């Protein structure tokens, strides 16, 4: 771990960003018909659930929320671990003919999203796939962009963006850390 360089978002900033994103998602999709939110493990899942709760409060309709594990779809799988931990993908409805909003915490190189697209396409043929992220930090290596962005945070490659969520980390914030030399 490096030293914290900046607090990018606190709990209130995260709440406001998700509130705004929930409205943008329903507006762009002209409501919630055939809409499903799919969180990319790990922190995309609680973000997707929070967005679904906000949309339900606004629209009065419960939105299905899925959980996507992309472990076997990663292009760096052999670099991660000789025995990666695989979790279950749990999608409560068929994705065929659905508008799927993939949800993740940080968009960086685009490789996680590419893996998620591959995993999702193996489950069926959605009408459309959109991407919602809490933080877009730049440095894309693939031609991928988010449709819904909580906050754009320009970073250097030496910096690391950490999203911490109550459901996983017992706190809500986003910080930038400067990596130690040699890290």
What does this structure look like?
The protein is α/β, with parallel strands linked by helices and 183 residues long. It has one domain (12-157): Rossmann fold (3-Layer(aba) Sandwich). 29% of the residues lie in helices and 28% in strands. The protein has helices spanning 11-28, 44-59, 77-80, 111-121, 166-169; strands spanning 3-9, 35-40, 65-68, 99-107, 128-136, 148-152, 159-164, 173-178. The strands form two sheets. Strands 3-2-4-5-6 form a five-stranded parallel beta sheet. Helix 2 (44-59) links the parallel strand 2 (35-40) and strand 3. Helix 1 crosses helix 2 (44-59). 32% of the residues are buried. The model has no long low-confidence stretch (mean pLDDT 92).
What is the topology?
Layout: E1 3-9, H1 11-28, E2 35-40, H2 44-59, E3 65-68, H3 77-80, E4 99-107, H4 111-121, E5 128-136, E6 148-152, E7 159-164, H5 166-169, E8 173-178
Parallel strand pairs: 2-3, 2-4, 4-5, 5-6
Antiparallel strand pairs: 1-8, 7-8
Helix pairs in contact: 1-2
Please outline what is shown here:
Helix content is 29%, strand content 28%. It has 183 residues and is an alpha/beta fold. The protein has a single domain (12-157), classed as Rossmann fold (3-Layer(aba) Sandwich).
So, CATH architecture? 3-Layer(aba) Sandwich
Number of helices, where a helix is a run of at least 4 consecutive DSSP H or I residues: 5
In N-to-C order, the SSE pattern is: EHEHEHEHEEEHE
* Top-tier CATH class: Alpha Beta
What's the β-strand tally? 8
Strand order of the largest sheet: 3-2-4-5-6
Low-confidence stretches: none
Q: Compute the separation of the termini in Å.
A: 8 Å
Please state the structural category: alpha/beta
Write down the domain tally: 1
Q: What share of residues is helical?
A: 25-40%
Shape: globular
**Main pleated-sheet profile:** 5 strands, parallel
**Which strand-content bin applies to the residues?**
25-35%
| CATH topology annotation | Rossmann fold
Computed Rg: 16 Å
